[in-house]
Amino acid sequence: MDFSAHILAAKTALHLSAVPEAILCRSEQIDRIIKFSKDCLLERRPGSLYVCGCPGTGKSLAMEKLKGLLSQWAVEAGILPPDVASVNCTTLTDATQIYSRIYHSLQPGADDDRSVGYQQLKKLLSFNRGAKKMQLLIIDEMDYLITREQTVLYELFQLSVLKDSSCILIGIANAIDLTERFLPRLRTFSCNPEVITFPAYTKDQIFAVLLQRLSSLSVATFHPAALELCARRVSAASGDMRKALYACRTALDLFEAENKSKSTEPEATCLQRDQFVQVDHMARALAKVFRSPVIETIQALPKHSQMVLCSAANLFRKRKRDAPLGELNKQYLGFCKTTGMRPVSSQEFSGICQLIADQGLLGLGTAREDRLRKTKLQVDHDDVVFALQGVRFFRNSLL
User: Fold this and answer.
1) Which domain holds residue 269?
2) Do the bridges between strand 167-173 and strand 83-88 make them parallel or antiparallel, or are there none, so unpaired?
3) Which residues form the AAA+ ATPase domain (predicted)?
4) Residues 194 and 319 in one domain
């Protein structure tokens, strides 16, 4: 199989613009969005919906899914499909520009230089003033419209409760409490938007989505352990699926560059069935995505200090209580034997542990005898794995 073509196919499958037919792990939220929108459209009923959740949790993907269904519903019901205005509020320099942006999206032939206010937009969305079909407004990054009086936000939501309104409003933002915190008077306008929350992706969900994205490829491209590392790291940091996809594409870049530089032999242009993006590629890719002071500190340690920290990570992986320094030294000596490295002396080992403790990576108590001093890992085990997995020496040494 042609190597470059396969890598390109993998990158395409992992791109944000690729919308899978089935959206995993978000069926409850998407079903609610679809039901709300379909009911409003078929019943010619205005309404408002607030979709919230942290970045990369599937909100925009759900909107793409929704827009793809609108024409199908209209054909099945024998009605005109709604006009759709999608506005990302980060592109606005002033909150009041939202009215013009919506107006010109719904009226593409109108003069772009003409400034439009709330009253003109309200007329456009009224069945009594000429609207012949429903109008779907998708307002992304809605929290950028927050002002001192919240006038713009209130007026937008009011569009969906006005008499004879054709407006279906879907507001999207990260803040879960936007409607309660910034718009407490909505109920006085008989406006109570339904709220749908998109939670952060879990480790298992990220892993499942990545597998789904890659399932169309004829040859496996990622080692499962590499995908697992990506899922674990991203879920621990944010649960942002966009970062997981970006990390995978970055790992592919590293894998591609490494294979192209290895050899100029003809077979190097073909992807072998035992070639994968490995854990070290993913670790290096994740290091580019997540900049952590702890991880950078670990990566800057001298090699034997990293070996001691690796030994501590393995020792404390399944135990929450502390352990004497002598037991950590025993773990370290076993590590040296496995890797063929010459161990440092007991005195040097104690000094290394003190250095690591001074960096805030290891807890180190006091005792009459050095070997009895209590030790405890002070950083997350996954941070140690993440920091050192990209180093070939440690690849098979971290549990």
Assistant:
1) 3-16+202-290
2) unpaired
3) 45-194
4) no
Query: Residue 360: which region, alpha, beta or left (left: phi > 0; alpha: psi -120 to 50)?
Result: left
- CATH number of the domain at 147, please: 3.40.50.300
Q: How many Å apart are CA 236 and CA 22, to the nearest integer?
A: 25
Does 21 reside within a domain? no
**Nearest CA to 305 among 271, 274, 349, 261?**
349
Half-sphere exposure of residue 50: CA atoms within 13 angstroms, side-chain side: 21
Evaluate whether residue 248 is within a structural domain.
yes
The domain boundary, picked from 151, 166, 198, lies at: 198
Are residues 351 and 266 part of one domain?
no
Q: Determine contact, residues 85/102, Cβ cutoff 8 Å.
A: yes
The whole-angstrom distance between residue 206's C-alpha and the CA centroid of its chain comes to 9
Distance from C-alpha of 9 to C-alpha of 15, rounded to nearest angstrom: 10
DSSP for 116-137 reads: --HHHHHHHTBGGGT--S-EEE
Q: How far apart are the first and last CA of the chain?
A: 34
Residue finishing a domain among 178, 198, 218: 198
The pTM for the full model equals 0.74
What is the C-alpha separation between 125 and 166, in angstroms, rounded? 5
Write out the DSSP string of 225-266: HHHHHHHHHHHHHT--HHHHHHHHHHHHHHHHHHHHHH--SG
Per-residue model confidence as pLDDT tens for the chain (399 residues): 577 888 889 999 999 888 888 899 999 999 999 999 999 999 999 999 999 999 899 999 999 999 999 999 999 999 999 999 999 998 888 999 999 999 999 988 776 666 789 999 999 999 875 567 899 999 999 988 988 788 999 999 999 999 899 999 999 998 888 888 878 888 777 888 999 999 999 999 999 999 999 998 888 899 999 999 999 999 988 899 999 999 999 999 999 988 877 655 555 455 554 578 999 899 889 988 887 788 889 988 988 999 999 999 999 987 768 999 999 999 999 999 988 889 999 999 999 999 999 999 999 999 889 999 999 999 988 788 878 876 778 867 776
With CA atoms as reference, report the closest residue to 203 among 248, 250, 239: 239
Task: Please tell me the total count of domains within the chain.
Answer: 3
